C-alpha cells in the first residue's frame, strides 16, 4: 500500500494547485498486489461494467475520505477505476472488487491513525517540510521515517 501526503505547493497547474484549504493529510495512493519478488502484478484489463463504488454508497463515501484524486478537476472515481484496472483486477481471482477497495480503506485508516501525526512530527523535528525553495534529501526523509515506522518505507517524489 502506498500513502502520500498532500500539500498545496502554490503552482496553479500542479496537483492540488489552486485549492485553497486543501487538506494537509495523508491520502491513499495505491494498493498494489505484488508477486513474490515484490513487483506489482500486471494483467489484461477488466471487462467494462458497473463499478462497485456506483452501487455501494458506504464504500464510495469511505473512498472519498481516503483515496481522492490530487489532480484538480479530476473526479475521484477516475483514480479508483485506474487503480482497479491496472492493479486490483489482477487479484480478482482471489479477492472481489468490494474486498479490494474495503481493504484499501482499512489499511489507510490503520496506517494513518497509528503513524500519521507521528510521521509529520518526526519530519518536522528533522526540519523536513514541503518547500518550493528547499530540497529535502531522500536519505534524510527515509532516516527520519525509519525511526517511527516498523515497516520498510520508500520515498519517491
From TrEMBL:
One of its GO terms (molecular function) is hydrolase activity. Keywords: Endonuclease, Hydrolase, Lyase, Nuclease. GO terms for cellular component: extracellular region. InterPro entries: RNase_T2-like, RNase_T2-like_sf, RNase_T2_His_AS_1. Coiled coil: none annotated. One of its GO terms (biological process) is RNA catabolic process. Belongs to the RNase T2 family. This is Ribonuclease MC-like. It comes from Nicotiana sylvestris. The gene is LOC104221345.
Amino acid at each position: 500500500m502506498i500513502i502520500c501526503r498532500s500539500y498545496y505547493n502554490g503552482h496553479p497547474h500542479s496537483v492540488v494547485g489552486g485549492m485553497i484549504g486543501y487538506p494537509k493529510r495523508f491520502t491513499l495512493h495505491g494498493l498494489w498486489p505484488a508477486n513474490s519478488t515484490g513487483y506489482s502484478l500486471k494483467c489484461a484489463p477488466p471487462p467494462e461494467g458497473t463499478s462497485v463504488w456506483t452501487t455501494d454508497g458506504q464504500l464510495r463515501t469511505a473512498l472519498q475520505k481516503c483515496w481522492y484524486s490530487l489532480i484538480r478537476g479530476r473526479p475521484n472515481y477516475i483514480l479508483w477505476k485506474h487503480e482497479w484496472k491496472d492493479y486490483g483486477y489482477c487479484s480478482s481471482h482471489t479477492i472481489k472488487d468490494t474486498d479490494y477497495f474495503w481493504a484499501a480503506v482499512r489499511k489507510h485508516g490503520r496506517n494513518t491513525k497509528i503513524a500519521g501525526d507521528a510521521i509529520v512530527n518526526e519530519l518536522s523535528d528533522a526540519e523536513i517540510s514541503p518547500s518550493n525553495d528547499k530540497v529535502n534529501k531522500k536519505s534524510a526523509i527515509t532516516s527520519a521515517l525509519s525511526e517511527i515506522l516498523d515497516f520498510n518505507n520508500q520515498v519517491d517524489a
